[in-house]
Every structure is written in C-alpha cells, then in structure tokens.
Amino acid sequence: MIGRLNHVAIAVPDLAAGADVYSGALGASVTAPQALPEHGVTVVFVELPNTKIELLEPLGADSPIAAFLERNPAGGIHHLCYEVDDIAAARDRLVAQGARVLGDGTPKIGAHGKPVLFLHPKDFLGTLVELEQV
User: What is the pLDDT of residue 1?
Assistant: First the structure.
C-alpha cells in the first residue's frame, strides 16, 4: 500500500537557522519558505537525491508545531510522510484495520499541492505518519 518515503519532517524553533544548517553546513538545496495557514506552519524543503527533509516552524501560537516545540524546545523529528496512490482507499483500509486518522478523516491539501492526512502515532509505534497521494 505505501510507496516511497516522501519526507522526514523536523520541527524547528527558527526556520531560517534550520535552513542555514542544511544549506550552509551540509551544502543542500533548500526551497523558499512557504506559509501553510491551514496547517499552522511555515515550511522549507531540503531536497536530497532520494527524498526530502521538511523543516516546520509554527505559524502562530495555535500551531500544533508550537505545542511540539514547548515539549521539545530545540526541535526534533515530527513525522514521516509516505506516498500512496489513492489516499481515500489507503484511509479506508487503515480505518478498517483499526488505525485512527487525525481530524475528521478528510484529506487536506499539503505543501506539495496534493492531498494528505495524518495517522495517530499510538497506532504506528509512537510515530506520527503522514500519507500523501502522488
């Protein structure tokens, strides 16, 4: 059902500083910041040959990333994103197997302009999982 690893998301307290680590110290290509108000974050993507790293900064105090950073002030891995061919079919299969989809179960449009949804970390070995339709 799942395809390739699309990205690893890292929550950061300072997006510009995080981007500088990847572009400066590691010499990676980093995209321009993109605000996603519907998700409560501003993101950049570090583009790697085999996947991406998504750096997330809270967009306002109500952002779920703000709550994550309260518990982890230096930041840290927030979620893993896997690609799926059909997000509705993947969701339905997972729900039938007992997995919990966060929110109302309706996919939202993510940073890549494609439908995404999140799965409860308690159902996936303590890891928040994002599915993105490709």
Answer: 87
Question: For residues 112 and 63, is the Cβ–Cβ distance under 8 A?
Answer: no
Determine how β-strand 76-84 pairs with β-strand 52-58: unpaired
Catalytic residue of the set 54, 57, 130, 132: 130
Check if 130 is active-site. yes
Question: Can you list the domains of the chain with their CATH numbers?
Answer: 5-133 (3.10.180.10)
> Tens of pLDDT along 27-64?
999 999 999 999 999 999 999 999 999 999 999 999 99
**84 strand-pairing partners:** 133
**15-35 pLDDT, tens per residue?**
999 999 999 999 999 999 999
Question: How far apart, in Å, do the first and last CA atoms of the chain sit?
Answer: 12
In the three-class reduction of DSSP (H, G, I as helix; E, B as strand; rest coil), residue 133 is classed as: strand
CA angle 114, 105, 78 (to 5 degrees): 65
> What's the pLDDT tens digit per position in 91-101?
999 999 999 99
- Evaluate whether 129 touches 115 at the Cβ level (below 8 Å): no
C-alpha 23/C-alpha 72 separation (Å) is: 23
